[in-house]
Amino acid sequence: MIGYVGVGNDTNLCPERKTALIARELAKYDIDIAAISETHLSDSGELCEQLGGYTYYWSGKTDSERAASGVGFAVRNRLAQKLQEVPKGINDRIMTLRLQLPTKKYLHLISVYAPTLPSPDEEKAKFYYELNHVINKIPTADKILLLGDFNARVGRDCSAWDRVLGRHGVGNCNANGFDLLTLCAEQGLTITNTCFRLPEKYKTTWMHPRSKHWHLLDYIIVRRRDLGDVRITRVMRGAQGWTDHRLVRSKLRLHLKIPRRAPHKHPAKIDWERLIKNQELTDKLDEAFHAGMPESMEDVSVDEGWRLYAENLRGCASRVIGRPKRKNQDWFDDSDAEIRKLVEEYRRTLLSTDTSERRGAHHGLKAKVRALKNEWWANKALEIQYYADTNQTGRFFESLQTVFGPKYKKTAPIYNKDKTRRLTVQNDVLARWVEHFHDVLNPTAQMPDLMYIESLKDLSTVEDLADRPSFNEYVAAVKRLKNAKAPGFDSLPSEIYKYGGPQINNNLFRLILRIWDCEVVPQDWRDASICKLYKGKGDIADCGSYRGVSLLSAAGKILAHIINTRLSQHAETLLPEAQCGFRPGRGTVDAIFVVKQIQEKSLEQYRPLYMCFVDLEKAFDKVPREALWIVLKKAGCPKKLLNLIRQFHDNMMARVRHENDFSDQFPVTSGVKQGCVLAPTLFSLYFASVMQDAVKTCNNFITINTRSDRSVFDLSRFRAKRQVTSLPVMDIVYADDVCLMADSLESLQTYIDSLHQSCRKFGLVISTSKTQVLKQAPRGSIGDPSNISLEGTALVEVTDFKYLGSRLRNDNTLASEVPARIASAAAAFGKLKTRVWNSHDIKLQTKILVYQAIVLPTLLYAAETWCCYRANIKQLDIFHLKCLRSILRIKWQDRVPNTEVLRRVGLPGIEALIIKHQLRWSGHVVRMSECRLPKAVFYSELSCGKRKQGGQYLRYKDVLKRNLAACNIPTDGWEGLARLRPEWRHTVHISVEAFEEKRLSDLDAKRQVRRTRPKPSYTYTYNSSGQLYCTPCGRIFKTKSGFASHIRAYHYDQLNT
């Protein structure tokens, strides 16, 4: 089906045969269905224009009300005759039309006319509440086409509103636009007007009558997954609608074919979860395994010994444990056994002849099932919150995917390499996947300068790293394995070692000792199975739209953990302090905090700051292995340990899994081993050598003076020069995410050139297209306009950059960060709307726990580093309370104050949450060792530059002092208390609770004063010309409302109350 839809704004769709004129214009542009806004027609009705060829349907205010607003549809007559349902008017601002598509699915068109910007907030809230309600009632499988005049400017910040806005927006976002973007983020909608690269004249729809600037106010919006149905959305400038808005036309091609069902061939699996909960089963498995093992394997090779071990373990597990039942991650599946018992009891009760007993059993069954569901959600929420509190990022996001629920999976024949045809034969498909992942995992790499790397300084070899591992090390490595992970070639998951008996682990430990002695790793431990996962965007038939996940042997991971533990301890003595990635006690917040503090201190002391965010092309996959072995040797790695690490990489083979079938194996010869626990440590050591080599030719650094033995609020501590330590700050690194910093463009250019040359020597490549520069000039001055270039190509300059998930701006404000956080949180909140918020079976307390575990961490990510103004807190608090009102199902008509909302859910406001985050983080910084970069920067000032006279711009330590004062924590001795972690956390918890209670009480008192204050009366004064004017200041007003506003604002004491 190919058709056109349009959006038009008509200020008066009524007499003088205007309907016929509009129909003519619609026919001229071949519009099948048009949404019309601001019709000014009363009630609801239908009008057929035979000559024009369109039928009009509208919904407006009642006859007794003044004509205003109004929405409608204009449908081509040949389509109107086939409508099974006429359009349904919700109110004077929303109208819906449902079209049946060739399948059993439907297309829901929603014509809207939103309140204008000056409209009362209550009217806007009512409109978006009702629109949200309309969208929520639409089945998720159906398509949505939301179109109309939204009176909103959404701007062009596509990075903050990812997948809501396209890259081709117009202008800036206003308050109405923020409401529309939040709705789209929650409902998974995309604004198609911003997705097509067109001249601005084909995107803007309305010209401001005074400024004469054109703006985009009329939108055509679809579900995110249906964006491929939209061929183009553009403005038709020639359409004459006798209105101040232009016609927006969208060409649609609807794809409604049922996805081809892939044949699901499930390989033989074992129900390993039974092993976790059943000690008797563990003992039986251990006995069966011991009986099947030969007495000695000293006379067989390592590969043969592993083969005998694995085959015996698989066979015993299959006989003793058995096959699992297919299940999905859901509360029902996890409670399946309990529910089965309840249902059986209920069935037995049905045999009773007592009607009341049967009725009671029915209600009892429902109540118990609801209790199980609520318990599952409560436990899941506590689990997610624990992962968030303990900074277990991987498990946190893994749990999020569980609660977001299973995604609809589509399959389609993939393209060949040049995309000229589709592949349907299974062997051809597997060959294509092999070709694709061979290119991905064996990229064309820059040849390293091995002679130069050999010439680097040798560090003393740490021979202790080569000692035979102890059984305690083996046990610690086994405990580090994660549950519920797909196994590698051997089909033996981590649970078999974590919960297996002593014979299973003793035999594997003896095998690991043999491997350690002879320095030969079994081939199964080297090889990888690659599962492909759709990225969620791009053509589903394109191999480039998938990422590969390597599945490795769990037994091999045990040996890798043993090696990695030793290597990581040695790496801590070698890695620079600027490296925050994959190291204990460090995280993304450390890196973000350092960068934002350097930005803040540069602005405070009127110094320029230039930052370059370097992107390496496939950094982990392009590490040359021969160069890596040399670097490890130079770093003091003993020969035995180096040989064992090489054994995991040399002769590595991989195969691709597609629809439970496996491809032929192919070699992987480049990069660190994907999915291996050794990979982050190996890359960190290698890249540290690159960075150290780059620094050799750089002399100009940003220098900070730091001293932490006195209070951070005491500036006089820098006067004692002998007590001050000077430190250079050139970069901050998280794995391969590099931020270079300098106080002049010349220094930054030198550094980027030096890093580029070092990367070439070590076989790495900097991506010119993705590396970006951010310039921060001192306030009130213009920065250096020169460009930073790489190999003659000027690097892209930006005003804000998304670094490690946080938005950095050249003015160090939160103008980009806060909207981005709200957009992400709105998307997370919207994903749980059906499964959690709208569920009647889940208790309110459980919903709040889920909200705390999922939405709040997303909203307040990196809030520890923020320097918040009151406007930022207000913007976040509005979203916070909006979500809570939605969970409580409080309508705007209920007039429940925010203080009551917070008390009902038992949560503090956003300000209290941010204060708690920042006080705990500040205590963490205080407890850091003196060599840690976040602490050094926190207690520092730049070595050059002066502050302006008078009051300073808001700084992080000003925010900290404000937070301490608000919580009644003395600013003199807080650092001594913060060094005691348990006492500090307890103090912060109690103090923030007291602050929040006082804040709510003050708001209640202020509201009560406002409610009891008598309504003011005004004395209107007129001059000799009959004009309304203010007696004290002589200002003239055209309206009484303007006069009243002026008196309230400037002369309140003169009101008659």
From TrEMBL:
Domain C2H2-type, first and last residues per copy: 1028-1056
Keywords recorded for this protein, A-Z: Metal-binding, Zinc, Zinc-finger
Record-level Gene Ontology MF annotations: catalytic activity; zinc ion binding
Residues in Reverse transcriptase domain copies: 514-808
PROSITE patterns: RT_POL (PS50878), ZINC_FINGER_C2H2_1 (PS00028), ZINC_FINGER_C2H2_2 (PS50157)
A GO biological process held by the record: DNA biosynthetic process
Protein name as annotated: Reverse transcriptase domain-containing protein
